[in-house]
Design brief:
This protein is mainly alpha-helical. The chain is built from four helices and no strands. Helix 3 runs antiparallel to helix 4. The radius of gyration is 25 Å and the shape is flat.
């Protein structure tokens, strides 16, 4: 009986844990959103003027992200990961596949880095 409980708990743990984590994140986000909307409704009922400063001070307010990425940072991190994989493949146990994977990641990182530098220069030139 004990021999069968270990695989059952293992399977439930492996497949149930991601579902549980997603549920927890969703639960607390919706709880925060409900609190924001409840406070907003109370402010509307009381007849207060709603300014952006008041909205930002309400608990649960989410700032809109402007979608701006930092390509130089992303490219540098990706290139570093690629270099690390190449070095691990070169001095590690299995050389050939890890060197190829590392060079692939390195080239992706260098591409993102080059785009970030190009885009940064373009923004500077457009502003002048």
């Amino acid at each position: 009986m004990e021999d069968i409980l270990i695989p059952i708990f293992g399977i439930v743990g492996v497949f149930g844990m991601p579902v549980f984590i997603v549920w927890i994140v969703h639960y607390f986000e919706s709880k925060s959103e409900k609190k924001f909307h409840q406070t907003l409704q109370e402010l509307i009922k009381s007849g207060q003027e709603l300014s952006p400063d008041i909205l930002q001070s309400i608990p649960g307010y989410k700032k809109e992200k402007n979608g701006e990425r930092n390509d130089i940072r992303s490219g540098t991190i990706t290139a570093g990961v690629g270099i690390g994989i190449v070095l691990f493949g070169q001095f590690g146990v299995a050389e050939t596949p890890l060197v190829g994977i590392g060079l692939l990641v390195l080239s992706i990182g260098l591409g993102i880095l080059a785009y970030g530098i190009y885009n940064k220069d373009k923004k500077v030139n457009d502003a002048s």
